Amino acid sequence: MSSPIERLNADPSLPEKRVKVLLERASAAGIKAEVRRAEHVSGVRSRSYVVLQLPNGRRTRPLAVFPRDLEGLLAVEFEKYIVLGDYVAVVDKDSGAIEAQVVGPRMAGRYVRALQQLPGVETTAEGDPEPDSEDFEEATAAARRPPDENWRLTVEDEGVVIEISPASNDFQVLFPPGVTVKIRGASTSSHDAALEVLERYARALLFDFDLVYGIPVQLAKHRRGTRTRRREMPEHPPKFPRNEYAGQALELYQYGRAATGLPLLEYLAYYQSVEYFFPFFAREQTVNSVRSQLLHPGFDARNDATLNRLINLASPAGRGGIAEREQLRATVRACIDDADLREFIESSPEHTEHFCSKNQAIRGVGRIHQDPSQSDLRDQVADRIYAIRCRIVHSKQDGGGNGEEVLLPSSRETESLQADIELLRLVAQRALVARAARA
To answer: Most CB atoms within 10 A, among 42, 68, 236, 426?
Structure first.
């Protein structure tokens, strides 16, 4: 394999001398660095870029450095920063200071202006101050000009200082610009200690902003790229729609589609779309079971035991109703076949590893056995879907699910849900099609 310098020399689009300086500084600090090709990086004209693996506790986080970023990065002491957990945040190893990005609603300028108008904000910018307001909508409605860069809000207690202000120059080199929370004076002797300080102070302060002033802001999270299953684009043009789909189930499905990036919400939306069809498919299973009993040569209408068995099959409500897990099984069996599920699971090595490995990324979820001699693949998929659903909506405290803790949006388990979301989406699609009517 060629070295980073050899790959650099082979690509004239990178300024060779400056990249060598970057690689040498990274090497001296024990930071892994490599030159990569940029064929799949959208919006980048150069063919190559450098990736730094910034320290992040026992892990690292990649930082892509393109030619346009080189001078800015070389102008700061990037070697002294440690990334904190899954946040867009760093701690300075020398000073112990923490800085983390703050995000709000999609209309970014509105929450920035609302923060600027909080009582106690200091500013050195010229111009007429705008009136304060404790109402988020009122505070942001008058915001029409770009936010000032010279403002800050500082609170302090027992030597710990928390500041809300525009991102520092160093921070803007490592991450996108914006508003950050800065914490000084707390003990941050290690990555875990700094992470605990960040979560203890920053999350509490930002929640108070929402509670008292109605400003919904929070710590920004680093979003990992997710690899989705590639699909071949059909060559035939779209046709006039022939199917009429169940309106409520379709709306829930489309809500899930719109919730991309919010895995727990997306999963529950798809689950509710499938759940809409539970009564029909559960009843259909009951009808098939009753029909099978009636057609059996051994059925004897004069035998009380035979009749009681038939009544039990036909009257699940009399036995407390069919359990939700069994209704889900009945729905999966009815709307998708074994071959389609197997094709999905084997569509990529990543999918096969995710679903079938002994060590599952999500606690309380059983692996899928591909051996045909094992239980029905459709039942395994249904049980997996149900177990994850219980992890999302139940916790140990309420006695629901299988006793595992509730899945939190920030957990690593939630980050690994992508393949399961795609699987449930496939089931939801098939359920909608299975119950579609011809228009």
So the answer is: 426
